[in-house]
Structures are given as C-alpha cells and as structure tokens.
C-alpha cells in the first residue's frame, strides 16, 4: 500500500525542506515547489491528495493558487500564513482551504492538522482507489491495473485518465480536457485525440472498439458510464503519525 502524496508549495526553502522532512518521517510521500506555476505543474503531474500552501509566494498570492486548486477538485488544502487576522483566515477558507494554520506554529500542531484532514477525508469516504472491474486506478501511487496487469502510463496519460474518472461518466469536450489535464496552455485540441489513442492502445482489449474510454459524438470523450455506476470506490488509509516524528519547536519563517 502506498503512502499519501502531499505537495508543499512554499517560497521559503528552509521551511519547505523542514516541513517536507517531517512529513516524510511521518510516512507521507512529498513533492515540493517554490511558487504558483511550479505548484500547478506538480499538481498536474502527481495529483496530490493534500496541498500544503503558503499564502505569500514569490510569484504571486497563494489565495489565487488556492482558488485554482479548489476548482480542480483538489481533495485537501492546508493553508499556511503569517496573515493572522480573522479577515485573513476567512479569506483563506473562502478561497477553498480546508484548514488555515497561522505562523509561527509548532511542528506537532502542523502534523496533527495534516492527520486530522486526512482522517476527515477518509470519514467522508473520498475515494483514493477506483475499481471499474477491468480497470483499477490507484490515485495514491498513480498507477493502474487492466484485467489484473499493471500498465505503465506517462504522467500526462495518467492525468488525462484521472480527469475522465473525476467526471464520473460525463462527457468532456477536448477543450475542457485540455484545461483540466494539461499543465500548460495548448491551442491544438487534437492533442487530446493523440493521447486518447495512446491510452486506448494500453488499456482497451480492442482499441478499435473501445469500451473503457468512449467517444461521444460532437462532444468529446467520457469514461464508460456503465463502469461508473457499477464501481465501488475504496479508501486507502494513510500511515498514522509516529510520536517520534513530532517536533515541538516553533516554525516562525514567513
């Protein structure tokens, strides 16, 4: 069973490294970025379960990225901020943050907040593993099984499949798929056709008569709605936080 994937978007390299180290010690898989654009790229590439997001980033306002992540249906967002007024906290929560932690904070509290968010998500039955019979998608380890065999996908192919799965059988246009699944703006919607063809060759028993990824005439593509209706999402539990990974020292960097 893989660990929960967490992304840290923090401009301060020392704090970013410190948070990453403690999360890894607690059993999480961690990806780090220093700003908004890199944070978006990491989201597209890895689809983290939790994003740790600073409100003040070197290339822009973290609230902007928070709103964007919320629109992408990021499961969990924990905002860190030196802004500590009631208005600041309300603004962060309204932007889409699931929790708001003001600086300075203790590492023990930080790890407890992370664990509480993961626990809340499990209680709300958010799927981390999708089982569509022939197709099984592990959203934590970012890998799939087709008819019992593990299939290697490129990061972009996985992102495309993930977005189709998120749509739960609803057809998405090529332009919508480009917007949701690609890290950079692309003008050519036929890029979607190329990647769908590549995916079908890897996951369909007969790519010429696809069953998993279906073409919807004059619209775009969808995951077979019949698979969605019959599926049962499963919950992958995160590792519990070991006591010796917790640090009582205060983190005061902005």
| Structural class estimated from helices and strands | alpha/beta
Low-confidence stretches: 232-254
In round numbers, the mean pLDDT is 83
Q: Quote the CATH topology of the largest domain.
A: Rossmann fold
Rg on CA atoms, Å: 19 Å
SS element count, helices: 9
**Sheet having the most strands:** 5 strands, parallel
- Topology as a string of helices (H) and strands (E): EHEHEEEHEHEEHEEEEHEHHEEHE
- The assigned CATH architecture of the largest domain is 3-Layer(aba) Sandwich
How much helix, percentage-wise, in residues? Answer: 25-40%
Q: What is the CATH homology-level superfamily of the largest domain?
A: Response regulator
Query: What is the molecular shape?
Result: elongated
CATH class label of the largest domain: Alpha Beta
Number of strands: 16
CA(first)-CA(last) distance: 35 Å
How many domains? 2
How large is the share of residues in beta strands? 15-25%
Major sheet: arrangement of strands: 2-1-3-6-7
